[in-house]
Amino acid sequence: MIKKAFFSSLDFLLFSNLFIAFCAVAQGMVTYYLLKLPPEKPVLAFLFFSTLMVYNLSMLLSKPEQPHKSPFKRVRWIFSHHRLIISITLIAGLCIVPIALLYLSYQSKLLMSFVGILALAYNFPFLKIDQKNIGLRNIPGIKLFLIAFVWSASCVLLPIVEVGKYGISVSLGETLLLVGKRFLFICAITIPFDIRDLFQDKLYELKTVPVMLGEKKAWIFCQALLGAYLVLLILFTKTINADVIGIALTIFITGWLIFKSNLKKNEYYYFFFLDGTMLLQFLIVLGLSYFKH
Q1: Residues 54/69, Cβ–Cβ less than 8 Å
Q2: Residue 129: what are its φ and ψ, rounded to 5°?
Q3: The whole model's pTM is what?
């Protein structure tokens, strides 16, 4: 009974996309922390609700013909709780509007409108090629980099743009470095999901990185991305402090989790442990910060 209640709660947290929304908040917090700036609650709320809405919309738009027969528990859960997911998505959408109108600057509104259009175009079949209606994810190789860009723009650029209205300026070099490192991190933790979906993506003619490179080269590419992240971290750090140690530790843990992941791992491993590295990154950096005081 306890086990059943635990997994029911975990399914709700993961498959309703509440967990990934909390991960988005954590990534926004990482940005504020690294910039030594106080976090803005409206920005974090916007990240939470926009992530929740976009991820749920993405799933609803990509509904398979027979979701109850899907090999993925997440798909079966979502469409067996169809009304709940629609309700959560509508509530998230309604929460976004006042936050954006009342709190976000004009520049932030423009940025997030562009990011939102890209995120929705990921699944929405607005392009017609060879008599087929496709979304952006069907364009060869773009899926991974589109996801990483959306996350980097939302969790790094949005906080940086928003602090500008208070006269706080973050240099172009520092902005590009933060965006670049976050981009590499998100790319690295996204590829294992594509490796897991390798056979399904081939069936749906989605040319993801693993489909084009093959499984083995895709694993190597993952580790290379994390390696590049570590190199950037070391090259552009003047002193080794708790922040650097925390980020480096996250890189090594993420690399180990990616190494351990394979086709046999269940969905909890991917949606809790791999996605959870985004939350873990914030918790480790925050935890180590107490040693500085």
Answers
A1: no
A2: -130, 130
A3: 0.91
